[in-house]
Amino acid sequence: MARPVPLSDAERSQYAWQLAVEGLGEEGQARLKGATVLVSRVGGVGGTVAMHLAAAGVGRLILAHAGDLRADDLNRQTLMSHPRIGISRARQAAERLQDLNPRVEVVAVEDNVSELNIAMLVEQTDVIASCAPLFQERLLLNRAAVARRMPLVDCAMFELEGQLTTVLPGKTACLACLYPTEPTAWNRRFPVLGAVAATIGCLGALEIIKIISGLDEPLDNQMLLCDLRHLAFRKVNVGRDRACPVCGEVR
Amino acid sequence: MGALRKPRFSMKIAVKYLAQLKKAAGMGIEDVAVDPGCSVANLVRGLAANDDGTLRPLLLDPQGRPHASLLIFVGDEQVRAAEDRFLREGDVVTLLTPMAGG
Hints:
The complex is a heterodimer of chains A (251) and B (102). Chain A has 251 residues and is an alpha/beta fold.
């Protein structure tokens, strides 16, 4: 994890409301300032993760998302704006976050995470936010996280349900322990309500803030299941697969 | 009426379907009667056999085994289909196909 970076007086003033949070304080805030988070996709889930990490003062955000904004993205991708349909989503997200908090460095990568760019993307990253709509991307991020012993927070949703889990390599189940192969029946076009995506994104951001700042313990071999139709939250226990081809040998 | 619900079966469990499975099953939860000694893997095969075809591709791989990506919980504990975990009267089994993004 990155080293803490001392706060300026202006930063103490900007983050005054959260410096009073038990377990965060100036030390935790300094850790946030020193950290870099890679956010894979800045749609409804990842965009919300990125927004709350920027607001909280995470020092550096790398946003990876290919493609330009379409009208039908706007029910959930709240870092974007209607007049900018047709313009790069990564760039729009980065500009919005810089407006929100100019003290944060935001790097826009106008491409999705792939075998071609992942080594470069994770090189200076401390924590990964996994928010892509494709399992291929999630499993690739998982392999990179395990290889570098880097925490990964996996945020996902479907219709009015969501799931959240945290991978702490060598300690918790990795994504390949949970689903060693891509679910074959997953349909790229699935039902998404923006408020559901944002709820999962907020929870993911909170999990990352906990990991970086140490303000409390993240999920530990657990998965949070959210039924937002009935506002029911449930934590279930997951376990490492000792035969996992990705993390089985990691101690 | 599918195989799992025939009267000869004597043990009642509940099956909760989440996400894609809930949509495919058309319900969030159902009571199912199974034989004593029924394993989690057999339950999954039975549910796939009962179904009108929409659940099967989510539950089973082309070889008819519980899909490797299927997440199974008995109570709040994850169970892998390969573990041969046997079900008990009153168990609540949650089935979930992983979700992604949004």
